[in-house]
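Hey, quick one: can you model this chain's 3D structure?
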Amino acid sequence: MMQLRFLDQPPRFLFFTGKGGVGKTSLACATAITLADAGQRVLLVSTDPASNVGQVFGITIGNRITAIAAVPRLDALEIDPQAAAQTYRDRIVNPVRGILSDTVVKGIEEQLSGACTTEIAAFDEFTALLIDSELTAVYDHIIFDTAPTGHTIRLLQLPGVWSDFLEEGKGNASCLGPLAGLEKQHTQYKAAVDALADSQRTRLVLVARAQQATLREVARTQEELTSIGLTNQFLVINGLLPASEAARDDLAAAIFQRERKTLAAIPEILKSLPCDHITLKSFNLVGLGALRLLLMEELPVSDDNDALHQAIPFPRLNGLIDEIAQDNCGLIMLMGKGGVGKTTLAAAIAVSLAHRGLTVHLTTSDPAAHLSETLSGAMDNLQVDRIDPHIETERYRQHVLKTKGSHLDAQGRALLEEDLRSPCTEEIAVFQAFSRMIREAGKKFVVMDTAPTGHTLLLLDATGAYHREIVKQMDSHSIAHYTTPMMQLQNPKQTKILLVSLAETTPVLEAANLQADLRRAGIEPWAWIINNSVAATTVHSPLLCQRANNELAYIETVSSMHTQRFAVVPLLKEDPVGIRKLLELPVSSQ
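Sure thing. Here's the predicted structure for all 590 residues.
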């Protein structure tokens, strides 16, 4: 194994974080195996709502501590927000069943049914792992594979936010139910804050790729984590193409030069961090054998002088855009695992529609997405913005104070203002912004780049909860003349869901699981997009040839088992940044 700085005298808690798709899960799993093989007792924890730790190991883990039988001394846990929320609800409601009336119990359950409870419950389990207890006493190391960056920041801030919120005695109507279970946990949250800020106990591993957008995101993460007292940080640049692959292949040479140029211009704030480089592998990082090789030095690839993979003429993205354009308006939502290229593809679709003279609003619900950097310019017919949780929360607060607060006396208004400072308020505000986007799509195209899978599902859960509440309050005649946001998402003439994946094990599995979740909600995905495909381009590099051959089975699975409508976007020599390159991307055959 190579000498890795982030593994040098590791503390008890190791957090792997970064933009989606950079390899956090693979690195966290490989690290856990390495430490367990060295004789340490290790617990590997995923805090990502769309966790795929179980998929990587090839077993079912779920919301309970599970031994990894093939690796002595290694256990794993996936914090499932929905399962955690149910456990949390039971903890509050079960003691009062049979004591309070059924009506009162039902009212408590309804208070605990929202997204706020889900968030509280998940972080309640998370903080329990950061304190000294019987649960954690047996482990030498606890390794956290976290959700993509924006939501990890939120998770790491939460113990302090809720601790402060409870300490100041705040909380009223909107959080009355969820907060009922929090008061008893105040000491736990304070201990969790102390553990996170202690550099002797906690190390944060910022995982990135040699891509400008990814490194900018890591730089922002570094600043935000430092600002909340988490300073023990290491940087890992993952998936670097070996120099040996660049000799006989134009695409490999272009990627190698692009990566070196990007690393030379690394943001200044990251230069002081201890840094490790890990090379791209020719195989998919699934299974113990592959994970044990991830942290090895550059591995030899069969040096076949006649290596050649000829580009396969898969359907291109422009075919899907032609179909979309025929409707003249509608909501286009791109969903999928982090790091599959949703932001770039959303921008390419929006630019292509605007170029045809159609009115387009391009937006994102992903806290880590930066559409303006991808577009790098402006064009006619195209409006660009993002659903900013901070702005939306303040807008919602002001609206509530102006309406509900205008009829209250000074004391009542003060209580309402305290209530609106709750972290729950953000969930409501973001849902309302999402609902506005859905309504707007009745008059123009709204192209939405969504947050990675798990958090998009939480947003859709809120949409479903709102729909059920409206239906419950209306009679059959009224609901026949009313359209909820969920009903619009279920109408394929109004909403087209595009599932974005890579031709790799985990992204395809996650997209397939997302499709199943959407179908249970009555939403049928419209098409799939396989992005950054080596199989769709011609390559001579032995490593890239092997990766191209690996992709074929996954593309066949998508087209034969998951969808009748799909497109494949080839891996490109240059990042598709800027209006001109985005316009070229849908028809690229490189």
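One thing worth noting: The radius of gyration is 24 Å.
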